[in-house]
Amino acid sequence: MTQLDDLTRHLLIGVLVIATFAVLPVFITQRYLLGEVIVFFIWAMVAMNWNLLMGHAGVFSLAQMLFFAVGAYGMAMGVTFTGMSVWVAIPIAAVSSALLALIIGMACLRLTGAYVALLTYAIAEMIHVLIITDTECFTLVRNNCQQLFGGSTGFSRFDDFGFRPLLKKHWILGNYYTVLAAFGLTIFGVIVIIHGRLGLAFRAIRDNVGYASSRGIDRKKYQVVAFALSALLTGLAGGVYAAHYRFAGPSLFEFSTLMFILAMVVVGGLGSTWGPLIGTGIMMIVVEFSKEMGDARNLVLGLALIIFVVVMPKGLVHLASNAWRKVSHDRQETKADS
């Protein structure tokens, strides 16, 4: 199968996935369930982009939730302080995430492996600390003191997508299809990157840096590009998250959230195309059934991550792919014998 055929096949699968979710509200009308699907869209966007960076470009970064938070905070700050439209603030916030990623990438990607993970996590934690220790009043919002970066309480009750006055009690449908549009943009963007020339360069660097360099592929240049593209779409996810929930706060930096997204990528299949979506669905189900466990829920996430890393390091997609190939091989042998 040629590269073009592979790209076309995955784009057609993407169209089918988006079409399926587009008709889902016809069958699911409960606001809670539609809200859960919206959450799935948002976390799947983050997981797909982390998989692009770590699974395909080979950059073990722990700054993904930082870029998500920049998208959320950027959107919230734009709307709160300048009064700009949500529809303008979200793309600006996404671009801000990409610009921050360029700066961090040029600094961190001089290193490799675990050093990149440690440095990116340290930068994310440093920004987290700066935010929660911001106590100085920047301006008054609804007669309440608002810090520049939100402080320990963050930003809340700002404008959302604006569907409440238009759609009344059906406003969730407006949010649903808006986030679905961002989800679709992410799917097609990631597919084009992964199965295009950039994806080939990313995987060449991931698999054999020496060989890739001998073919004229600059490791640092291409990994910085992967860093920025991943951050752009992750920032978009953060922006739509903030607009949907009308909230952006320090909880976005929590380590448990980072582990939750990482578990999605690992369970689904690191380095695959559709693994992050499958992993997101499975981990959301796990979290839903463990809600009453309180803090012990993090233990469940940790155990799931450990089990898959040890038993199935390539995730469920790889396992299903191997099973399908075995079934196909057995069928071919049966036909040959007959």
From TrEMBL:
<dbReference type="GO" id="GO:0015658">
    <property type="term" value="F:branched-chain amino acid transmembrane transporter activity"/>
</dbReference>
<keyword id="KW-1003">Cell membrane</keyword>
<feature type="transmembrane region" description="Helical">
    <location>
        <begin position="299"/>
        <end position="320"/>
    </location>
</feature>
<keyword id="KW-0812">Transmembrane</keyword>
<feature type="transmembrane region" description="Helical">
    <location>
        <begin position="33"/>
        <end position="52"/>
    </location>
</feature>
<feature type="transmembrane region" description="Helical">
    <location>
        <begin position="257"/>
        <end position="287"/>
    </location>
</feature>
<feature type="transmembrane region" description="Helical">
    <location>
        <begin position="114"/>
        <end position="133"/>
    </location>
</feature>
<feature type="transmembrane region" description="Helical">
    <location>
        <begin position="224"/>
        <end position="245"/>
    </location>
</feature>
<dbReference type="InterPro" id="IPR001851">
    <property type="entry name" value="ABC_transp_permease"/>
</dbReference>
<feature type="transmembrane region" description="Helical">
    <location>
        <begin position="87"/>
        <end position="107"/>
    </location>
</feature>
<keyword id="KW-1133">Transmembrane helix</keyword>
<dbReference type="GO" id="GO:0005886">
    <property type="term" value="C:plasma membrane"/>
</dbReference>
<keyword id="KW-0472">Membrane</keyword>
<dbReference type="InterPro" id="IPR043428">
    <property type="entry name" value="LivM-like"/>
</dbReference>
<feature type="transmembrane region" description="Helical">
    <location>
        <begin position="176"/>
        <end position="196"/>
    </location>
</feature>
<feature type="transmembrane region" description="Helical">
    <location>
        <begin position="7"/>
        <end position="27"/>
    </location>
</feature>
<protein>
    <submittedName>
        <fullName>Leucine/isoleucine/valine transporter permease subunit</fullName>
    </submittedName>
</protein>
<feature type="transmembrane region" description="Helical">
    <location>
        <begin position="59"/>
        <end position="81"/>
    </location>
</feature>
<dbReference type="Pfam" id="PF02653">
    <property type="entry name" value="BPD_transp_2"/>
</dbReference>
